[in-house]
Automatic annotation (TrEMBL):
Name of the coding gene: Dvir\GJ10340
GO biological process: signal transduction
Name of this protein: Odorant receptor
Annotated TM spans: 140-160, 188-211, 277-298, 304-325
Membrane topology: Multi-pass membrane protein
Length: 401
């Protein structure tokens, strides 16, 4: 559909990555019911993914406890295990919040302009173009990085293969970990074990990309409404409050704008409530995973293995940066409302108008931010803190050698 000549539908913002559609890893399939509300008809994918996660983490937890009890080295690949936990947490948070996500999307759907003229007023075509371009970049990275990540251990296995009695090293395995009957050391079933690892990897990565699609869809539209409202505030002229013929209508218009501001703040709060717990937990796990990946990159001499660990490291850093950037954008869009009120010629308005604006300015000073229960604010400073934490953990590991 041409985004210029025909109205854009909100469903066009909710298109998940192509590989998710090919492998049917769609945690949300949005359709409309008889009342026109968006509903999700795809919870089975969630449940199947969680069953696999219970098995995957259960057997690996058993291996860790067994190795501690026997004093042996575990079969775990810590960077892969940590990033698997990272992905799974986001999947669990999406599942827990799935009803809130659908409800919030219906709130955005009611706000979303349906005709072309209204969409141009809100700059919907430009917002959708930016969103679609970013969605394409993420898909392009996934289409190249995932096959590279999956094939690297296979290529290493083929190049370094000696005989059937030689051990299958951790570098030859996609995820590592433990499987019953010592299957990971059986050369005859190596292809089947690799396929099992690929499937487990896809389950985790699709949790991540589904979260990414929903987060960016919601954030882009929240910012769009805040920016449009800011333009409305900038268009206010205090001198109009002196015109006796239109004074009552003018003040009704001002009261309507105040109610709209309150409504937008409630939308921001709902957006924050959906994602705050997932971001709080996964940012800490992400810092740990970045640390482990950096450690293996610096300790490895094999170029293929270095490439294998660089790909997820880049993804973690870039997507952590972007979430913090989105949080900064939300904070700045909210603070621009206060600036728009303060910078207008409110002091030239009537007495009633000045009272309203001064109270409104005070209210607008409470800017909306992406926060995690008030413990951290998700912005660029938080990104700096996460990277510093990852580096401190990395230097600690290096010093323990």
């Amino acid at each position: 559909m041409d985004a210029v000549d025909e109205p854009i539908k909100i469903e066009q913002f909710l298109q998940f990555q192509k590989y998710q559609q090919v492998f049917h890893f769609l945690h949300f399939q949005f359709v409309r019911n008889a009342d026109g509300r968006l509903i999700n008809k795809s919870e089975l994918v969630f449940r199947a993914g969680f069953l696999l996660d219970v098995w995957f983490f259960g057997i690996n937890l058993f291996d860790i406890l067994r190795s501690i009890q026997l004093g042996e080295t575990s079969h775990q690949n810590l960077p892969v295990l940590s990033i698997s936990i990272y992905f799974t947490i986001r999947g669990i948070m999406m599942f827990i919040k799935r009803h809130d996500i659908v409800d919030f999307l219906n709130v955005l759907d009611r706000e979303f302009p349906k005709d072309l003229v209204s969409q141009r007023v809100l700059n919907v075509p430009q917002v959708f173009e930016r969103y679609h371009r970013r969605h394409g970049y993420v898909g392009l990275y996934a289409n190249y990085a995932l096959p590279g990540f999956c094939l690297t251990p296979v290529v290493t296995y083929i190049l370094t293969y000696e005989d059937r009695n030689a051990p299958i090293l951790l570098d030859h395995q996609l995820l590592g970990g433990w499987l019953p009957y010592d299957l990971r050391q059986n050369h005859l079933v190596y292809p089947l074990v690799w396929l099992y690892d690929v499937y487990c990897m896809l389950v985790g990565v699709t949790f991540f990309t589904s979260f990414d699609t929903l987060f960016n869809t919601m954030q882009a539209q929240v910012i769009m409404y805040l920016d449009c409202f800011c333009r409305q505030l900038e268009a206010l002229n205090a001198v109009d409050s002196y015109q006796a013929m239109d004074e009552r209508q003018f003040h009704e218009h001002i009261c309507g704008l105040i109610r709209r501001h309150q409504q937008l703040n409630l939308i921001c709060d709902k957006f924050n409530d959906i994602f705050k717990l997932a971001i709080l937990i996964t940012d800490l796990v992400g810092a740990t995973s970045i640390c482990f990946h950096l450690y293996l990159i610096t300790e490895n001499q094999d170029p293929l293995m270095i490439i294998k660990y660089i790909l997820p490291t880049l993804a973690l850093v870039v997507f952590t940066f972007e979430i913090c950037l989105r949080g900064t954008q939300l904070e700045e869009a909210s603070s621009r409302l206060n600036e728009a009120l303060y910078n207008q010629n409110w002091y030239m308005g009537s007495k009633m108008y000045r009272k309203l604006i001064l109270i409104w300015i005070k209210y607008a000073q409470c800017t909306r931010k992406l926060t995690a229960y008030g413990l951290v604010e998700i912005n660029m400073k938080h990104f700096s803190d996460i990277m510093q934490l990852a580096y401190r953990l990395f230097t600690f590991l290096k010093s323990r050698q």
